[in-house]
Write a structure and sequence with these properties.
The chain is α/β, with parallel strands linked by helices. 41% of the residues lie in helices and 20% in strands. It has 2 domains: 4-235, ATPase, nucleotide binding domain (Nucleotidyltransferase, domain 5); 241-435 and 471-497, Nucleotidyltransferase, domain 5, CATH 3.30.420. 51% of the residues are buried.
Length: 497
């Protein structure tokens, strides 16, 4: 069959792009049409998103798509990061420039909220891990400092829903991103109005929650005219970027709990795909999250610091006059002594240090660990510690789900780190399948393809990804050494700093 074209808008915290997913009935390929920058904008004492610039860039990308694909495109959908939102008035005006999740107005808000409603009650109502950046605490902050703005709000939309509104006029919130807000009841799968009421957040502004694959409407006539496109169908993919990435995991085990995923990048999101949320006291203790997935599933997952440690070490080495590529760093790490230094990658000292190697050195010294003293040792420390943390989290997930994982899929940019992939297989004692790198964009366009009828099921979507991607499998090695290292890792994490 001729290739069918589905347009995806994939927005990250640092960049965005418009891509074309070209599907021939068996395989799909991506073409990047337009890439642009994104990031926080300082406005007075606040951090905001420049959504008007993003909208302008999206339209530029759509105009380029028209030039490349003419009338071949079938639909368009948007995915973004989670938690952030906009408020609209009754007349469709944006009420202020949307806040960035790192805006300082939420400082201390979560702790005060937990003094008002118990942690266990919030978790029971939402199933979401506790982070100060969550939408719930952003809304509480706004309610406290600018209640008049909340009074004017007629509609609450999350970031991808804003762009869908700009594309076609829809005013709904898609399920996968809605669940990142800590404002959704995972049982009813709609807004947790009782909880919101306890914080005096007006419930009337929250719209219908819709599932991935929902047809939202036709491209606005004025947008179609400016971009020289037909009035395409606008389709909600899994609008949270991790939700789209998990939809594109190339597993043949869909519908089972025998596989785990790691969406690997600056952060690592490790989890399972389940038919229901896990809301037990143990899940609360582990501070895991239950985020929405495709076909009404839940992604039981844990955020892990990820390759941030490596990225920040590399920046520090550059400041010291040594510019090394990631490939060169991986080679140096591979030549370094195994298990010389271990750290907890999720320790707060590594969240935003002035100098990552110094933070690692100080952490080790405070706990009686031998500190790294070369570039290769620092990177090896980071990668081995990250792989051992994956093993710890895998154990938590298996305990919570009552299952044993047989294979781990690593998707996203971090799947290119072959040393970490092998370390993960070694530490967890499970085979690792790495790829695809472009999981988020693939998940976006494949949900659209399924909505069009070109693909019949989630299992078929994942089979297409498998057929279309260069995947690499890693088998566990050196099990006795890694088991010994894991025992030491657990002990190190218990030592006072």
């Amino acid at each position: 069959m001729a290739e069918r074209c589905f347009l995806g808008v994939d927005l990250g915290a640092e960049s965005g792009r418009v891509v074309a997913g070209l599907f021939d009935g068996q395989r799909i390929r991506l073409e990047e049409i337009h890439r642009f920058s994104n990031g926080a904008v300082h406005v007075a004492d606040s951090l905001r998103w420049d959504v008007l610039k993003l909208w302008s860039e999206i339209q530029s990308g759509l105009a380029k798509a028209a030039g490349s694909f003419g009338n071949d495109a079938i639909s368009i959908g948007v995915d973004t990061w989670g938690v952030d939102y906009v408020l609209l008035s009754k007349t469709g005006e944006m009420l202020g420039q949307p806040y960035h999740y790192r805006d300082p107005r939420t400082a201390g808000v979560m702790d005060r909220a937990l003094g008002r409603v118990a942690r266990k009650d919030i978790f029971a109502a939402t199933g979401v891990q506790f982070m100060p950046i969550n939408t719930l605490y952003q809304l509480i902050a706004t309610q406290q400092v600018n209640p008049r703005l909340m009074d004017l709000a007629d509609r609450f939309l999350m970031m991808p829903d804003l762009f869908h509104w700009l594309l076609c006029g829809s005013q709904v919130v898609e399920f996968t991103n809605a669940t990142t807000s800590q404002c959704v009841d995972p049982i009813s799968r709609t807004w947790a109005h009782d909880l919101l009421g306890k914080f005096e957040i007006p419930g009337a502004m929250f719209p219908e929650v819709v599932l991935p694959g929902t047809r939202l409407g036709k491209l606005r006539a004025d947008v179609a005219g400016r971009c020289r496109l037909p009035r395409l169908e606008v389709v909600a993919p899994a609008t949270h970027d991790t939700g789209s990435a998990v939809a594109a995991v190339p597993t043949a085990l869909t519908g089972t709990t025998k596989w785990a995923y790691i969406s690997s990048g600056t952060w690592s999101l490790m989890g399972l795909e389940l038919p229901h949320p896990v809301l037990t006291p143990r899940a609360l203790e582990y501070n895991v999250t239950n985020e929405g997935g495709i076909d009404g599933t839940f992604r039981l997952l844990k955020n892990i610091m990820g390759l941030w440690l490596v990225q920040e070490c590399r920046r520090s080495f550059e400041r010291g006059g040594k510019t090394l590529t990631y490939a060169e760093l991986a080679h140096l790490a591979g030549q370094s002594q195994p298990f010389r230094s271990l750290v907890d990658p999720d320790d707060g000292n590594f969240l935003s240090p002035a100098d990552m190697p110094m933070a690692i050195r100080q952490w080790c010294q405070a706990r009686g660990e031998t500190a790294p003293d070369s570039e290769g040792q620092f990177i090896r420390c980071a990668l081995e510690s990250l792989a051992l943390k994956y093993r710890m989290v895998l154990g938590w997930l298996e305990e919570l789900a009552g299952t044993r994982v047989e294979v781990i899929h690593i998707v996203g940019g971090g799947s290119q780190n072959e040393l970490l992939n092998q370390f993960t297989a070694n530490a967890c004692g499970r085979p690792v399948v790495a790829g695809p790198i472009e999981a988020t964009a693939l998940g976006n366009v494949l949900v659209q393809a399924r909505t069009s009828g070109a693909i019949g099921s989630l299992a078929e979507m994942r089979a297409v990804v498998q057929a279309s991607s260069a995947l690499k499998r890693y088998e566990p090695r050196d099990q006795s050494h890694w088991n010994e290292a894991y025992g030491r890792f657990c002990e190190v994490l218990k030592r006072p700093g």
